[in-house]
Design brief:
Elements: E1 5-6, E2 9-12, H1 16-27, E3 32-35, E4 49-50, H2 52-57, H3 62-66, E5 72-74, E6 76-81, E7 86-90, E8 96-98, H4 101-112, E9 115-117, E10 125-128, E11 131-134, E12 138-140, E13 142-145, H5 152-156, E14 168-176, H6 179-183, E15 193-196, E16 202-209, E17 212-219, H7 225-238, E18 251-255, E19 266-267, E20 270-272, H8 288-305, H9 315-325, H10 340-351, H11 354-366
Parallel strand pairs: 1-12, 2-3, 2-13, 3-9, 6-15, 13-20
Antiparallel strand pairs: 4-8, 5-8, 6-7, 10-11, 11-12, 14-17, 14-18, 15-16, 16-17, 19-20
């Protein structure tokens, strides 16, 4: 009988975090296996909006990427509080891109050059003789959890999955529009529309990517999420913005904002990246950039460790995360002392001013233009 296959690093999860780390480590000469419960291309509940920082960090060749895939350039936004006045912003350059996650994640995973174990759910994680053994099939001195919010490695490192964590819950639908639906849709591809909930606990969006339409809503308070989503769809339909027939059902998913997450990111010969570590930006919920950047910070640490992942050898990763994303688990609720009615009135007034919508909501909250590109230690 043959034993488990040996490799240098096992990465659980082939989303943007896992594939980015695999790409960097494979280029540095490590034997990396990525294991994912799904077979790619697979879908992921997501609006599919990526900022230019992601394109830079991944050194994406946009001309190569757009061949046969959706790459929607974004140059403007429409911002409002639901039922409130709207502000339109316009930008001189392309400020973001719309991608389809089934295409984007597949492209990155194939490009990584790692050995892939698709369609394999990680059920069993054992620590034996200073190495990790996964599902009795793979063995390595280093295990990386990149399995998203419900990552089994995060659970193994002590995360209370589905328990006490304060999550953002979101629902989304994405579908190709037929000719009749395209004619009934007044959403412009280069102009995503954002609608803040009146209690400021979340926001909804409608985003057209080529002939695909993506509609969704996410909230920090997940009570009656489906009702919020249904009301939003009705709101858009009543204004003749989207087709009256939406095929497919809304799909839900949860994730952690960095300021709310308290997950331990390091274990014995193990670390977490991306949503498994709970890194999404507060305000926008953007998680792809933190997933990619945490993977690059992990790659620096892993390559510096030079194959010895004993006590203290991975600590630099936690420090780098903190330097990049700030302190964690200090998640005070927004405006705790302000009565909801006043919060709504102030929010509506601010969101209705061009300066606030452009400089704060778009530039700061959604584009993170104040964050410089990530400087990694080792360029592979
Ligand atoms: C509705 C919604 C909209 C969003 N919109 C945006 C957006 O527009 N832009 C943005 O930047 N972020 C957005 N996000 C956040 C973003 O989707 C995540 O932050 C991002 O996908 C994190 O990437 P990841 O690689 O860490 O995890 P994931 O992309 O979740 O990948 C994890 C992988 O692990 C695999 N896996 C899980 N469990 C196991 C297991 N037991 N065994 C094997 N494999 C396993 C999964 O199959 C999956 O392929 C959105 C999130 C939601 C819910």
């Amino acid at each position: 009988m043959t034993g488990p296959r040996d490799c240098d690093v096992i990465i659980v999860g082939g989303g943007p975090a896992g594939s980015t780390l695999a790409w960097r480590l494979v280029r540095a000469g490590l034997d990396v296996v990525v294991i994912d419960k799904k077979t790619f291309p697979r879908d992921k509940v997501c609006a599919g909006w990526v900022t230019p920082a992601v394109v830079d960090a991944l050194a994406l060749d946009l001309d190569a990427y757009r061949r046969g895939r959706v790459l929607q350039e974004i140059r403007a936004f429409r911002i409002s509080m639901l039922e409130g006045p709207e502000v339109r912003t316009r930008h001189d350059a392309v400020v973001s891109y719309g991608i389809r996650r089934c295409e984007f994640d597949h492209y990155l995973l194939e490009r990584s050059g790692a050995a892939l174990e698709p369609g394999e759910t990680v059920r069993d994680l054992e620590r034996k003789g200073g190495r990790w053994v996964v599902n009795d099939r793979l063995r390595a001195p280093l295990l990386v959890g990149a399995g998203g919010h419900f990552c089994p490695v995060a659970r193994r490192l002590g995360a209370d999955l589905g328990g006490s964590e304060r999550v953002v819950a979101a629902q989304e639908v994405e579908f190709p529009m037929d000719e009749r639906q395209r004619a009934a849709c007044t959403i412009r591809g280069d102009t995503p529309e954002l609608f803040f909930c009146r209690d400021l606990q979340g926001y909804a969006w409608v985003f057209r990517k080529g002939d695909f339409l993506n509609i969704g809503l996410g909230r920090e308070d997940n009570h009656r999420l489906a009702e919020h989503v249904a009301a939003f769809v009705e709101f858009l339909q009543a204004r003749g913005r989207i087709p009256v027939d939406l095929p497919g059902r809304f799909k839900g998913h949860a994730y952690l904002l960095h300021t709310h997450a308290g997950r331990e990111v390091l274990g014995e010969g193990a670390l977490l990246i991306g949503d498994a570590a709970g890194l999404a930006y507060p305000r926008s919920g953007e998680g792809i950039r933190p997933a990619v950047e945490s993977a690059l910070l992990a790659a620096d640490t892993i390559l510096e460790a030079g194959g010895d992942y004993g006590p203290g050898r991975l600590d630099a990763y936690a420090r780098r995360l903190q330097e990049r994303f700030g302190r964690r688990a200090d998640g005070r609720p927004a405006n705790p002392l302000m009565p909801p009615g006043i919060r709504t009135r102030i929010g509506e007034r601010l969101l209705g001013t061009h300066w606030f919508a452009r400089r704060v909501v778009v530039d700061r909250w959604f584009l993170h233009q104040h964050e410089p590109p990530l400087a990694t230690v080792r360029e592979a």
